[in-house]
Q: What sequence folds into this?
């Protein structure tokens, strides 16, 4: 399989703190990669480094064989790396449809003059944009809300809208930062289903997540960060059983195992 | 937003009616003074539209608009004095103002108050240039006897030429902006205003778009400046201090941030109200100031928001009902 994201010894320092410390991993095309770790492990920082919202202090990132280290976020978005945010970031005053249309900005080109004179090219582009945006809303099941203001959506729907905005331009990689945070169990199940469908279309997905059942069900491979360092990596089942991982999450002692068992039980119940 | 609250046809009708009435005013009103005041309101309507694009659509708070107004005004005054026809001088005013705004492109990356202070600095510098470069601007004496716009020979014909020229420019800029904000460019600007990081993540080149917006606003403010010069026929550097920027900002705020039509209404209020209060002289600015406080009390949506709320109440079901939900949305 071809490598989509080749992350080599990427490091990000904030003052004296190494938020991400020399992390390396290769993410294959078509993979659904989970990134887990305790709070403050550097998961979101890693996502910000990949998406270009933060610049690395050291290390390199290659996207489809091309070195993209240090490129701006909008440039990377145009190349096909899209993301969502931990604390959902929509354009609240704009309609649901317009939110998704902004996601098409980098792959369309009509400028001020085209808008002013409503050239045939501009009108065609607007039409195909609207078409693509409504399609994306269909994918996430929000089409009937297309003309409502984004701020009026319920919480779970906002998460879905953010995903629609991120996938509308048919990117190569989708980075999801805690997509299941705040979702109820049935919404979380629907989210996993959506991620699988998106992935089936050939999109590589990277998920930062605390919900272990979402990680276990959606991901083909999981990596664990702890104190900014790459701790472990492998298929979900193997990671879940890794004593190092359990220790990082829950510390030493008998209580750790008991909590893990309870977690697993809860996961099977949800399923 | 407010402008989405009514059916497009109704909005179009209302706007067509408003501009139509303004075009008919000179048939009824023959006093040159009133026409002169209205023309000035049109001029500031153009400047307020530029400010609205910056503030209401891109979230850029500029205190530099007086500088661009001044650059447009001096350019037009000097070029027509040098024998250029008005139309060419008018175009040159906008273009030069737009080009000079490129100086500020590096600071458009600043946000909020930082951008406001930086553009304030620009206004101060440009004002100093107007005051001190006597060889070009006439210094503190300013420029007198600027060519009047007149297609006829009588003074009345001159007033009418000015009136319709200003109205035409206002209408053109309004229609142009109306199209521009309702496009890929306009949506991206709004996205930047609402959440810069999310805009960036969606592939919007934030710095580039802010710069384009800034230049576009400077361009139309330069146009307004050109009209201003031929309206006043006399320029003084003190017409272009930062206070003028504040006045334009007040117009946009009173009219309603985020509404193009509101910016024009705000300009009308900003120009006509102080004139109307002239009769009570020393209380004029006190009352004007107090009214501003009251206006802003209606909320950030200004007069446009107030109007939208009124119409929504007056028009029952078909238009208002589907929008009740929208109206209650705050973000």
A:
């Amino acid at each position: 399989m071809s490598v989509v994201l080749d992350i080599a010894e990427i490091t990000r320092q904030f003052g004296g703190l190494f938020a991400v410390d020399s992390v390396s991993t290769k993410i294959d095309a078509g993979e659904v990669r989970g990134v887990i770790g305790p709070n403050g492990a550097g998961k979101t920082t890693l996502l910000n480094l990949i998406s270009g919202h933060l610049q690395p202090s050291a290390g390199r990132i290659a996207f489809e064989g091309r070195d993209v280290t240090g490129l701006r976020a909008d440039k990377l978005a145009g190349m096909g790396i899209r993301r969502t945010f931990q604390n959902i970031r929509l354009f609240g005053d704009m309609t649901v449809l317009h939110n998704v249309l902004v996601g098409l900005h980098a792959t369309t080109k009509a400028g001020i003059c085209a808008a002013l004179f409503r050239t045939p090219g501009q009108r065609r582009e607007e039409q195909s944009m609207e078409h693509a945006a409504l399609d994306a809303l269909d994918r996430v099941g929000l089409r009937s809300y297309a003309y409502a203001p984004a701020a009026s959506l319920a919480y779970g729907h906002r998460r879905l809208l953010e995903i629609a905005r991120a996938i509308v331009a048919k990117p190569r990689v989708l980075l999801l930062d805690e997509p299941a945070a705040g979702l109820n169990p049935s919404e979380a199940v629907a989210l996993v289903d959506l991620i699988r469908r998106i992935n089936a279309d050939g999109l590589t997905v990277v998920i930062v997540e605390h919900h272990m059942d979402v990680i276990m069900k959606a991901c083909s491979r999981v990596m664990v960060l702890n104190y900014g360092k790459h701790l472990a990596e492998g298929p979900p089942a193997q990671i879940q059983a890794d004593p190092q991982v359990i220790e990082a999450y829950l510390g030493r002692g008998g209580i750790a195992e008991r909590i893990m068992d309870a977690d697993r039980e809860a996961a099977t119940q949800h399923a | 937003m407010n402008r989405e609250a009514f059916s497009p046809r109704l909005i179009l009708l209302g706007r067509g009616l408003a501009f139509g009435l303004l075009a008919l005013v000179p048939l009824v009103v023959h006093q040159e003074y009133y026409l002169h005041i209205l023309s000035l309101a049109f001029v500031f309507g153009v400047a307020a539209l530029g400010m609205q694009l910056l503030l209401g659509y891109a979230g850029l708070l500029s205190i530099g608009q007086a500088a661009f107004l001044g650059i447009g005004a001096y350019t037009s005054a000097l070029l027509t004095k040098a024998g250029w026809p008005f139309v060419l001088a008018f175009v040159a005013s906008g273009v030069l103002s737009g080009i000079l705004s490129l100086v500020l492109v590096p600071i458009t990356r600043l946000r909020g108050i930082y951008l406001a202070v930086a553009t304030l600095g620009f206004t101060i510098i440009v004002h100093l240039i107007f005051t001190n470069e006597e060889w070009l601007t006439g210094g503190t004496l300013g420029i007198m006897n600027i060519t009047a716009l007149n297609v006829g020979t009588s003074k009345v014909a001159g007033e009418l030429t000015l009136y319709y020229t200003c109205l035409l420019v206002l209408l053109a800029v309004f229609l142009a902006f109306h199209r521009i904000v309702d496009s890929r460019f306009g949506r991206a600007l709004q996205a930047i205003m609402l959440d810069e990081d999310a805009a960036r993540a969606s592939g919007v080149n934030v710095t580039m778009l802010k710069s384009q917006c800034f230049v576009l606003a400077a361009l139309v403010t330069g146009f307004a400046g050109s009209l201003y010069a031929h309206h006043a026929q006399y320029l003084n550097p003190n017409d272009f201090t930062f206070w003028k920027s504040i006045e334009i900002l007040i117009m946009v705020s009173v009219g309603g941030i985020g509404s193009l039509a509101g910016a024009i209404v705000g300009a009308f209020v900003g120009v006509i109200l102080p004139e109307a209060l002239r009769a009570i002289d020393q209380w004029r600015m006190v009352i004007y100031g107090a009214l501003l406080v009251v206006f802003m009390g209606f909320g950030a949506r200004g007069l446009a928001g107030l109007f939208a709320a009124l119409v929504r109440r007056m028009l029952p079901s078909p238009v208002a009902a589907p929008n009740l939900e929208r109206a209650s949305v705050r973000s």
Observations:
- The two ends of chain B are 11 Å apart (CA to CA).
- DSSP finds 16 helices and no strands in chain B.
